[in-house]
Amino acid sequence: MSRVGKAPIAIPAGVEVKIAGRTVTVKGAKGESVWEVPEVISVALEGNQLLVGRVKETKEARSLHGTIRSVINNMVVGVEKGYVKDLEISGVGYKAQMQGTTCVLSLGFSHEINYEIPAGVTVEVNKTGLEVKVSGHDKALVGLVASRIRAFSPAEPYKGKGVKYKGEQIRRKEGKAVA
User: Fold this and answer.
1) Per CATH, which fold does 3-80 belong to?
2) pLDDT tens-digit profile of 2-27?
3) Domain spans of the chain?
């Protein structure tokens, strides 16, 4: 039995949960999230808690039980507190700036990269253009946007130039040894 799936999800004050058939809707201060639950999983609202269970004892139900519980818990946490990913840009001439809903990145290429930010995600760039803050209520979407921005130019191991997550350790390599 899934240990993660058995744990009840506490619903904090200010968060509203509605269950209509297989659709779970979570509303809070940061936004609204909707998730379609598979047929083999059941979700029940009891007081201030959500309980996730299995309809059948199949392999599919056992494999999805803990995952669906984690997804719904992430929805509750997201609409209450939100999620944030911080990125750092390093390198001569490397920078980012926002133009409306487009993030314009100068990452050492012959052209600028224009990345359109999807709805539900907020991107903030500091004044120097070297720190990017991606935030929103959907954990998966925040992580996806941050990873796509990082993927344009991941930090390289020789000089450390590129985009990296804040606190990420880049394994540095030695350059060519002169004989």
Assistant:
1) Outer Surface Protein A; domain 3 (3.90.930)
2) 588 889 999 999 899 999 988 999 99
3) 3-80, 83-165
